[in-house]
Design a protein that fits this description.
The chain has about 800 residues and is mostly beta strands. It has 3 domains: about 5-165, TonB-dependent receptor, plug domain (Ferric Hydroxamate Uptake Protein, Chain A, domain 1, Beta Complex), CATH 2.170.130; about 175-260 and about 335-790, TonB-dependent receptor, beta-barrel domain (Maltoporin, Chain A, Beta Barrel), CATH 2.40.170; about 265-335, no CATH class. It contains 4 helices and 40 strands. The chain has a 22-stranded antiparallel β-barrel. A 5-stranded mixed sheet has the order 3-9-10-7-8. The chain is globular and about 95 Å long.
């Protein structure tokens, strides 16, 4: 496989672009491979990107390699209306994905919640966000599907889906390797080899290693935000018969890091939910002069009446002489946390796909997959030597999926249809160990989820120009949760505080009853699309679709919660385990796809309107967050993608995304979220553009120069629109690279600068448990990277 013939084969660009002054004319040239149309499988069958009546962006593996993209989250820089964050959340996993498309997604990593955007690898659903920041190795293409995919993909795709397709083994011997180094001891090694074992059995193996030092330092020498990931994949392809193909793959990932690069930027001393329940920072300061037994600490200070002198708390001046105070002395500078900080994840996956072409009119596909996830992560949430909020999480998860697809055509190919059946089985444990000011306890429990779905979709061509697509999916889902939440130590029992002295707060007390709670969900999701080929180069479509994100359980519970701890008369104890229902979307979309007669200019665009009901809102009930269906909303927006090529070697692309999300109804008294608040983690505008030039050097090869720019407008990181963790202004990032490639298209050397202007911006932010702290995660800053690659 050659760089030159594949590098841009999958790049799709959206947005309006003014080509006045663009060097050269848009005519065919030797480098028209830059505009080669990628084949996508967004609708479970192969079709050209420009032929599919769906809002989808597609990127080839070589195109991503050309951009210097090494993990899946980096595609958010140029895919419109996509947010793909490495999300620290409360627990501290450094490889947890928070994915949003068109304003809909999920930031919570707990297995009792579900994502709003589906992530798929070779047709296999990746159920958990932990470990979902995937390293990209041996990738054929990535498709970003916008809007609900409730018919062909099913539940938990109400925002959209990301579909990753890996390369299949081929019969010829080939391979590649790449060595890269850069800022903060960055090292990236990639390698793959492909070979034929017999005339019908082919194999491939690939490997990736990524390492980089962290960029937030702790006083104890731990560097947060580092990267240490190893990924491997082995694949076999067997042409069992002339009409039967079997593909089998195994992938493994090992992630061993120090946790997310969070900084403490503020301390909150009030609890907006319950003013009578102070946050843990204040409780710590009340008892700062004493240990848990009431014995004065060395250096304790007292007033004339023998009462302890309180700690100074912002904005009051600091009293640094009082031991154990938690105040703004820990804000700024190096992270002063001392509790363990680490993030370790092991993933194993296997996939068996069988394709059987039964006849010219029928084919059958079976996808059988198993995945195993084991993760352990910890962090110091208070960023201090004190014990105010420290976390250790353990998660193990196994999932099995089986999908059958029967595809066919009839009536001289005027009807194309698919029938499918899908089964999903998931089980595991998530244990949250928490050490707070007042107590040490265990949260979490065991989860078990099953889902069975049947779907059908067909496209009827009334004429060569007019087509109708209709689809329907039925989903039956069962979920259960066994909470195992128990108090280990009550550090301030007997102090007279009503909650600290409550029976369930004593050592051995259970926060929730040790009973298994079950919920059943049954939903039907339709799709209807009318597409019209206006002329050879212009296609338009209109789509109505529905989708749902599954309900679940609130497992992160700490007293006092909104339900009583002793069931009222006639209420079973099991009803005290908090649950929430699914959320739903109904979407109208109007889109078009245009390709100029020369094939060297393309524009794709879409407008959408979303009605969003039963939103799952995270509500803080004194200390712990509980999820409730507490809002309805509407979302309007659109995307525009463009790319163009001139005969003089200039190539340009632009992508624009716009989202306007607003609550139409919300329970402000319960959620403490104002109806005028913005959605979390959503920029109203996301814009990216690039321009590149290839300069031919004859026998010496060619030079490729590329300048990338992306812009995101301001956004909030929580539903409360907390200013301390908000990106309060828009920001842009500029990347530049120059590469040399030999004439044989075998060697490639690239030097790149990421974040050329060294701009600072917020990646994400969180509010610490019990509203005791505000934490921010900023970007790394300017980075230099040198890559050397060789194909053979």
């Amino acid at each position: 496989m050659r760089y030159r013939t594949r590098i841009f084969s999958g790049l799709t660009l959206t947005s309006a672009i003014t080509l006045a002054g663009f060097p050269g004319t848009l005519v065919a040239a030797d480098n028209e491979w830059l505009m080669e149309e990628i084949t996508v499988t967004a609708r479970k069958r192969e079709e050209g990107l420009q032929e599919a009546p769906i809002s989808v962006s597609a990127y080839s593996g070589d195109g991503l390699e050309y951009r210097g993209v090494s993990n899946i989250s980096e595609i958010a820089a140029f895919a419109p209306n996509l947010v793909f964050q490495n999300n620290p959340s409360f627990g501290g996993a450094s490889n947890t994905a928070a994915i949003y498309i068109r304003g809909i997604g999920q930031k919570e990593f707990l297995p009792t919640t579900e994502p709003g955007v589906g992530l798929y690898v070779d047709g296999v659903y990746i159920a958990r966000s932990v470990g979902a920041i995937l390293e990209l190795v041996d990738i054929e293409r990535i498709e970003v599907l916008r809007g609900p995919q409730g018919t062909l993909y099913g539940r938990n795709t109400i925002g959209g889906a990301i579909n990753i397709t890996t390369r299949k083994p081929e019969d010829e011997f080939s391979g590649k390797f790449q060595v890269a180094g850069g800022t903060d001891s960055y090292v990236n090694l990639l390698g793959s080899v492909n070979f034929g074992m017999t005339d019908k059995l082919f194999a491939s193996a690939s490997f990736a290693l990524s390492q980089q030092d962290g960029y937030v330092d702790r006083l104890d020498g731990v560097d947060l935000g580092d990267d240490d990931t190893v990924t491997g994949r082995v694949a076999l392809r067997w042409l069992a018969l002339d009409n039967v193909e079997v593909n089998f793959s195994i992938d493994v990932t090992r992630d061993d890091e120090n946790g997310p690069p969070l900084n403490l930027v503020g301390i909150n001393l009030g609890n907006p939910v319950d003013p009578n329940t102070p946050p843990f920072a204040v409780i710590n300061n009340i008892f700062a002069n004493f240990d848990a037994t009431g014995v004065p600490l060395p250096g304790a200070q007292f007033d004339g009446a023998g009462n302890p002198i309180p700690c100074a708390i912002p904005p009051a001046p600091l009293n640094l002489n009082i031991p154990g105070c938690y105040d703004n002395r820990y804000i700024g500078g190096d992270n002063q946390g001392t509790a363990p900080a680490y993030s370790e994840t092991d993933i194993f996956g296997s996939n068996l796909t069988i394709d059987w072409v039964i006849s010219d009119s029928f084919s059958l596909k079976s996808i059988t997959a198993f995945r195993d996830l084991d993760s352990e992560f910890a962090r110091d949430g208070d960023h201090s030597p004190l014990t105010i909020s420290q976390f250790v999480d353990f998660m193990d998860q196994d999932q099995f999926t089986q999908e059958l697809q029967l595809l066919g055509n009839a009536a001289d190919n005027r009807l194309n249809w698919i029938l499918g059946a899908y089964y999903f089985d998931e089980s595991g444990n998530n244990v949250n160990l928490l050490d707070f000011t007042v107590s040490s306890f265990r949260s979490g429990g065991r989860f078990d989820n099953q889902s069975l779905a049947f779907y059908a979709q067909g496209t009827w061509d009334f004429t060569e120009a007019l087509s109708l697509t209709a689809g329907l999916r039925y989903t039956d889902e069962s979920k259960s949760f066994l909470p195992d939440q128990i108090i280990f130590v009550n550090k301030f029992a007997g102090t007279g505080h009503p909650q600290l002295d409550a029976p369930f707060m004593q050592a051995g007390g259970r926060i929730l009853p040790l009973l298994e709670k079950e919920i059943d969900i049954t939903e039907t999701t339709p799709l209807l699309t009318i597409s019209y080929q206006i002329n050879d180069g212009l296609m338009s479509y209109i789509t109505y679709s529905e989708g749902f994100k599954s309900g679940g359980f609130s497992q992160r519970v700490f007293p006092p919660i909104v339900v009583p701890f002793t069931a009222p008369p006639g209420t079973a104890d099991i009803d005290l385990i908090p649950t929430f229902d699914p959320e739903f979307v109904q979407v109208w979309e109007l889109g078009f796809k245009y390709t100029a007669p020369s094939g060297l200019f393309r524009v794709n665009g879409a407008l959408f309107h979303t009605e969003y009901d039963d939103l799952q809102i995270q509500v803080f009930t004194s200390v712990a967050p509980v999820t409730k269906n507490a809002a309805s909303a509407e979302i309007d927006g659109g995307e525009l993608e463009i790319k163009a090529l001139s005969d003089s070697g200039w190539f340009a692309e632009l992508a624009v995304g716009f989202v306007n999300a607003r609550y139409t109804d919300i329970d402000e008294a319960t959620t403490f979220v104002a109806s005028s608040n913005d959605f979390e983690r959503i920029s109203e505008w996301s814009i990216s553009g690039a321009i590149s030039k290839q300069i031919e050097l004859g026998n010496a090869g060619n030079i490729q120069a590329r300048l990338d720019w992306n812009y995101h407008s301001s956004f909030f990181n929580d539903t409360f629109n907390t200013p301390q963790i908000a990106q309060d202004s828009g920001y842009d990032v500029v990347n530049f690279s120059v590469a040399w490639q030999d004439r044989a298209d075998l060697w490639r050397i690239q030097l790149g600068v990421e974040n050329l202007s060294d701009s600072d911006h917020l990646v994400t932010g969180i509010i610490g448990d019990a509203f005791q702290s505000y934490e921010q995660m900023e970007n790394r800053g300017r980075e230099y990277k040198l890559r050397i690659g060789r194909r053979f």
